[in-house]
Amino acid sequence: MKKFLRVTLKTIGVIVAVLALALATTAVVNVAATSAEAERIESYGQRVPVDGKEMNVLVSGSGDETIVLLPGFGTAAPALDFTPLITELAANYRVVAVEPFGYGLSDGADTPRTTENIVSEVHEALQALDIDRYVLMGHSIAGIYALDYTERYRDEVTAFVGIDSSVPGQPGMDEELPVGAMQTAKALGLMRVLSSIGDPYAGLDFEETTREQMTMLSFQNSLSASYVSEMEHIAENFAAAADTTFPHDLPVLLFAQADSPDIATWAELHEEQAASVEHGEVVFLDAGHYLHHTRSSEIAVDTARFLSELPPVAAPAPDSF
Description:
Blueprint: H1 2-38, E1 46-50, E2 53-60, E3 66-70, H2 78-81, H3 83-89, E4 94-99, H4 115-128, E5 134-139, H5 142-152, E6 157-163, H6 179-187, H7 190-197, H8 208-221, H9 225-232, H10 234-241, E7 252-257, H11 266-275, E8 280-285, H12 291-294, H13 296-308
Parallel strand pairs: 3-4, 3-5, 5-6, 6-7, 7-8
Antiparallel strand pairs: 1-2, 2-4
Helix pairs in contact: 3-13, 4-5
């Protein structure tokens, strides 16, 4: 019996030592790889001043109308992630992909990632570019930020287009997220190990160099201070948006998954949001949450159709002196 216990304890000790060595190795490899990748990241877009920092913005196309793209939570490089959709939209519109603080090539944030701060900063970036008349188009959590944005800057926004956008009353958004465990996993290099198992962009319409850049930026930006702050404010931001709607006179077009695997009421919630405005419509697509990765053509066509059907609205009169 004693011999069996000694052998068992020795075996456990060996296993623990092997695991510790493996984790130490992945942690060292992760630090080295992240440092090396930082030097390989290529610039794109332009940096504009916002609250003493710089925010990266990519402007494409030269149409008479402007569409401003806002990303979903945690998108490593929004301007690159939106590439398939930008390609489709830029043929007819000026497209402005904004990378909020902590995303893509933008600086990290000093302020808490509340809806109020995020909205104010994005608006300041557009002001720096003299953009004051545009369609706001957002993916995922941008739908929550857009509720506050369109209320505060209704005179600038001509319509909102959601790409499987988040909605008030969305189930599960009050749950506490395992931030600490995720940070530990990243520090130990486990997230890099998991990502090496499969390429999330495989089979999608991205060039190889673009996929590589997005992957490297993901390792750079994931679980940064800005990322963690936004994650910690998700429940608060959703709570602040509870029972809110878009301005009644704001045209709203929502693209949504035809059948969400996670939220049974997804279609119903989007139909209710569209019904809350004078000109609202939902287009259901048979695709995953990142609709713009696989359904960009349909999104561009239906967006053009929806906007063309709206009654003309006069631009705000210039200030008089």
